[in-house]
Amino acid sequence: MPEKKTLEDLLKEPNTVEDLEIPQGILIDIILRLLYNEGNVNFRRISQVVRVPNVILRQMDWLRQEHLVDASQAPSSIGPLNYVYKLTHAGEERARDSMERSQYVGPAPVPVHHYNRSVELQTSGARNVSVEQVRGALADMVLPEDFHRRIGPAVNSGASLFLYGPSGNGKTTIAQRIGALISGVEPIWMPYTPTAGGQIIQIHDRLFHSAIEKPGNAALDGRWGLFKRPSVVVGGELKMESLDLRFDSVAKIYEAPLQLKANGGMFLIDDFGRQQVSPVDLLNRWIVPLENNVDYLRLRTGQTIVVPFRTLIVFSTNLDPYKLADDAFYRRIQIKVGVFSPSEERFKEIFLKVSSQMNIPFDEASFKFLLERWYHQPGRSLQAVHPRDILKIIQALCNYEGIPAQMRTDLVDEACVSYFVEQ
Q1: Domain of 88?
Q2: Closest of 202, 211, 210, 206 to residue 252, by C-alpha
Q3: How far apart, in whole angstroms, are the C-alpha atoms of residue 121 and residue 3?
Q4: What is the pLDDT of residue 410?
C-alpha cells in the first residue's frame, strides 16, 4: 500500500508529467486551447496560465516534435524561455477537437485524491480558537455573558451548529462573525481545479476564496493556491442543484457544489426553511455527509466520486425547529444554540451603544416612552435590531429638518409609525 502523502509532498513543484499524476492528454489539450484562443503565445504566458513551468517546457518540445506547434524567438533572445509558439495546421485541427471536449483553459488540474488528502490533512483535529478570540469576534454585540461558550466549542470541533430563535436578534451576524473568525485563524491550501474521471471540476471561486501571498522560500506546485478559509453563505435562493456537481454545457466542465467550495471553512444556510427546496429534501441531502464526513458526487457518466465533507455547517432559522425536522436529524446536529429576544435591560444596553455610535444623545424619557407606547401597550416583542433601525429613522428625520440628531418623544413616535406595521 503506497505511503500517504504529506501536505509538503502534495505541494512539491512538479518537473514531469508523471509528477502531475494526470493524463498527459489533459495537459496537452489545455495548452492547445490556449494557443487556439490567443494565437501567438510566449512561454511565459503559457506558464502563467497553466502554472507548471518545468513540465510545460518539456511538453512544448514534444508538441514541436509532433508538428503541432511552431516556435520562434526574437533575434536578441536566447533560450526556450523566450520562444513564441503558434499552432500548425495539424495543431489547429487537434485544438478544435479539444474544444469539442472542453473549453477549459487554466491551471493544470490535480487528481481528486490529492484534493481529498489535502482537505483531510488541513481539517484533522480541533481548531485552536481561544476564548479571547471568540469573545473578540462577538465583542460589539450585546449578548448573554456566557454566550461565547455555546459558540466556541462548535468552531473548535468543526461540529455542525444550529442557530434558532425569533428574527432580528443577530443569528446571521453571529454566523458571519464565526465565518470571519475561522477565516482569520490559518489559511488553507487548495487546488484551483481537481480532475476526476477525465473531467475538470472548477472549485476555485473568487466570491469565496480570498488569495493570500504564498511563502517565497520554496519551490511549490503552482496548481495550488493559498487562501483564507472560505465562508459560504446562502439563503432563500438555495436550490438542490447547487449542492451537486453542475455541468456547464458550453464550457463542458463541472462547477463544484457549494459545500465543496466551503471545505475547510464554514457553510451557512441562512433563513433555513425558506429555501426553494423543501426542508425535508434539504435535510435528507445532509444526512450522510453529517454522519460520515464524506460526500458523494456523481458525474454525468454515472461515475461517483467521494470527497471530504469538512466544513462547519451552520443552519440559521427563525422558524420552529421541530416543524422543520425530526429528532433523527437534530441528533446529527451536535450543537443547538437559541438566540432570543433581549431583556429590557439588554435592549437598553443595545440602544445606548447604537446611539453612541451614531452620535445621537440618549434621552431616558424618550426611551421610556418608546418602551411603553410601542412595546408594552401593543405587546410587541423586543428585537436586538430595533434600536439601530429606529435610530436610523430618527437620524433621517433630523437631517430632513436640518436639526442636530436628537431623541425626542415626538421623533421616536414618528420613527416608529414609519417602522412598525400596525395591525
Answers
A1: 23-105
A2: 202
A3: 14
A4: 96
pTM for the model stands at: 0.88
Listed residue (272, 259, 236, 268) closest to 164, CA to CA: 272
Structure-derived torsion over alpha carbons of residues 267, 271, 276, 277, reported in degrees to the nearest 10: 60
| Element spanning 31, H or E | helix 24-38
* Euclidean distance between CA atoms 329 and 140, whole angstroms: 33
Q: How far apart are the first and last CA of the chain?
A: 71
Element (H, E) at 297: strand 294-298
Q: Residue 379 above 90 pLDDT?
A: yes
How many domains does the chain divide into? 3
* Confidence (pLDDT) at 391: 97
Q: What is the pLDDT of residue 286?
A: 81
In a domain, 1, yes or no: no
98 and 197 inside one domain? no
Upper half-sphere CA count for residue 350 (Cβ side, 13 Å): 24
User: 21-26 long-range contacts, Cβ below 8 Å, gap at least 24?
Assistant: 21/110, 21/111, 21/114, 22/108, 22/109, 22/110, 22/111, 22/195, 23/198, 24/59, 26/108, 26/109, 26/195, 26/198, 26/200
Q: What mean pLDDT do residues 318-323 have?
A: 82
Is the pLDDT at 274 greater than 80? The verdict is yes
